[in-house]
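Record 1 of the preview.
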Amino acid sequence: MPTREENVLVLQGGGALGAYQAGAASRLAESGIDIDWVAGISIGSVNAAILCGNPPGQRFERLRAFWEKITSGYLAPPVQTGAQSRRLYSEIAAAEVVMFGAPGFFRPRLPLAFWPIAPTHPLGVYDTSPLAETLNRLVDFDYLNDKGPRLSVGAVDVQSGNFVYFDSRKTRIDARHIMASGALPPGFPPVEIDGRLYWDGGLVSNTPLQYVMEHTGKAPLCIFQVDVFSARGEIPESLADVQQREKDIRYSSRTRLTTDRFRYLHAIRAAASRLAEKLPRDLRDDPDLAVLRRAGPDCPITLVHLIHRKAGFEGLAKDYEFSRLSMVQHWDTGADDVARTLAHGQWKSREIGKDALQVFDLGADTIGKGEAR
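->
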């Protein structure tokens, strides 16, 4: 039985909610879990680049610096306490971001840029050049490409509509690749790389989990899938709730779909192996049987779901509400969910490499005793 796993961090897109991922990653490091590979989409790719582009002793200082920078535009505390006041605070903070942008991240273009008589027409409402400056200041791209953990970020080719991954094992990554992964239209303009234009990978899949599962090696993997949108939720009670619930389902759906798909592929592989033992020796090398025996990854996988569950103050604008108060709360929640998962009895009693695919969702208080799925 193997005793060492390769640890993978899989980071979903979700704008301001990415602070939850940062908190989760920091607590994993504090718990002694070294990450070998980070895959990200959109804000997940930004977090991933900072993690992979700095030595261990500087990663979380730089990550915190990023989140404090982009949330420095709204520092005023709520005027009153209480749930309604807190939600109003978040809505006002989000409205301010829409109007003025987020420092070190994006800023609105001048209205003149959108006039019909303008010489050129922008392909995004906001200018993301501040993000390029921030990335180049906080990420050592030479370290990322030569020494850091493996990095994979997903984007979409604007012309072909194809999903594309930039992987540090195959491509020399720079700020353009990270920005391409987060270029969500119509807010952000596409990013040009080698003559092609790219948009946010979340247009096709808001999680890079499938890419990771399809590019495994032989060593056991432990994948920490950090999602900022939850598939589970309550029945909406207003039109605003409907819009928020729709967003949660839309952006979380690929995680469940991919998990179910690979659970099915693992089952086919296991069934084919059992069938091979029952067949005469001259049929065990049948090419059709060989195809079935190669279904799914070649290695045992532990998949750990760390999911941001909706906080009471969050509304439809939660993914672009860049207040410092909300950032700190999301960061702390991510750290707490990791601590709860790693302290859980089911996690402590698991055996590395025992099953082809083990799935755990143990992080939230609402799970009660937790569940392994």
